[in-house]
Design goal:
By secondary structure, this protein is mostly helical. The protein has one domain (25-395). 70% of the residues lie in helices and 0% in strands. α2 (28-46) packs antiparallel against α10, α4 (83-103) crosses α10 and α5 (108-132) crosses α14 (384-393). It is globular and about 55 Å long.
Length: 407
């Protein structure tokens, strides 16, 4: 008797293996927000490539021109600790979306396996990024925290929000300490490996600093990730038109709080306000806490923008969306450009520029990635990093394994 047919029937009854979400099924709002948030990340990271004699709060170089100081004020108030929480929230949103999408097909266990593999490989990408280029990497941190999201996607809504608040309460003082100017006249760039004299010295500094960086930065990322899981459940970004009133309130309130709460530390970092350590610490705490509000407001604003452009997106929205869908490649490209041009053992231009010129370079780099992503989208190509990650995460089993029945 031929027992092949029962095996085929059993294979056919199995749920389909999890696969990436096709681009035509992706929501516009999160991809639009990711594309724009990459500009904030480029601007926030650019200051670390400035080689200065002395640094103040938020690692802002001291002794710059009046234009540099004005740029420092704007970037600390409007960019620093505002866009990275949004990026983290979108990571949590994507994790929940992966599980929710497959749960309808009774493959939630497989979807959690995808999330587990994706987190592991993303951590691997980040560690390579640390080894080769940039000590301020966020990919490895996100990858490690992704394993925590395996529990979060099963938690109740109330537990998610309470946990996010508790983690934010830990993140605020840690973030404030990171924002403080160096003590006892020490010269400190937030990422000292970028000031190393040679590539080997830089590698050693990147590797040895990463564990401490993880402990200091992980809470600031995990709190918005948990909120992102909650947002995905509520469908705020999937169908923003239904939540227009709430999104409008969140956008107005969050952006206003984020900007106002960033001004005191911005004034201190830019050298417009000379004050003592206690006041600087209070301003730093306010900066971190209102940064979460600013990220929420920015996310809501992009969701509203998505409702207005749905079905008739112009070239700018299409380009930003393409960038968001290739955010991993674009993020890594920023490090390649910055290291090649500005670190001492490569291009060395960081010795000759201030924060204003570096911000222009960051803007130009981001624009180049937007143009490249848009061209790739027009030709139907994914980003190279996304292609590799998908091949690693959504690896397919051989036909023999799929169709074989019990032995």
């Amino acid at each position: 008797m031929d027992d092949t047919k029962p095996n085929v029937r059993r294979a056919a009854a199995r749920p389909a293996a999890p696969a990436p979400i096709p681009e035509r099924e992706r929501s516009l709002a999160p991809d639009l927000a990711r594309g724009a948030a990459l500009l904030g990340i480029a601007l926030a990271n650019s200051v670390y490539y400035v080689n200065a004699a002395e640094y103040g709060a938020r690692s802002r170089p001291l002794g710059g021109s009046s234009v540099d100081r004005a740029v420092d004020l704007l970037l600390v108030a409007l960019v620093d600790a505002r866009w990275l929480p949004l990026f983290a929230a979108l990571f949590g949103y994507g994790a929940m979306l992966t599980v929710r999408r497959r749960a309808a097909d009774r493959t939630s266990d497989a979807a959690r396996g995808v999330l587990r593999r994706r987190s592991g490989w993303l951590a691997g990408f980040g560690l390579v990024h640390v080894l080769l280029l940039f000590g301020g990497d966020i990919l490895a941190i996100y990858g490690v925290l992704g394993f925590g999201l395996l529990l979060a996607v099963r938690a109740a809504d109330r537990s998610l929000l309470v946990s996010a608040g508790a983690v934010a309460a830990v993140a605020a003082p840690l973030g404030a300490l990171v924002s403080m100017p160096p003590f006892d006249g020490a010269v400190r760039n937030g990422i000292p490996s970028l000031l190393a004299e040679g590539p080997w010295d830089a590698l050693v500094l990147r590797v040895t600093a990463w564990p401490l960086d993880f402990l200091l930065l992980a809470p600031s990322a995990f709190a918005p990730m948990l909120v992102g899981v909650w947002v995905a459940r509520r469908g705020f970004l999937d169908d923003p038109g239904r939540h227009r009133r709430l999104l409008r309130r969140t956008a107005l309130t969050g952006v206003a709080l984020g900007a106002a709460g960033g001004v005191p530390l911005g004034l201190i970092a830019a050298g417009f306000w000379s004050t003592g350590a206690p006041t600087t610490l209070a301003a730093s705490l306010l900066h971190v806490l209102t940064g979460f509000a600013g990220a929420a407001g920015a996310g809501a604003a992009f969701a509203l923008a998505a409702t207005r452009t749905a079905g008739r997106a112009g070239p700018v929205v299409r380009a930003l969306t393409a960038t968001g869908r290739r955010s991993l490649s674009c993020y890594l490209a920023q490090s390649v450009v910055f290291v090649a041009l500005f670190v001492g053992y490569a291009g060395g231009l960081g010795d000759d520029v201030g924060t204003a010129a570096m911000a222009v370079a960051a803007l130009a780099t981001w624009l180049l990635t937007v143009v490249a992503a848009d061209l790739a989208a027009r030709r139907g190509h994914r980003g190279p990093a996304e292609t590799l990650l998908r091949r690693l995460v959504y690896r397919r089993r051989g036909a023999a394994e799929v169709t074989a029945g019990p032995r």
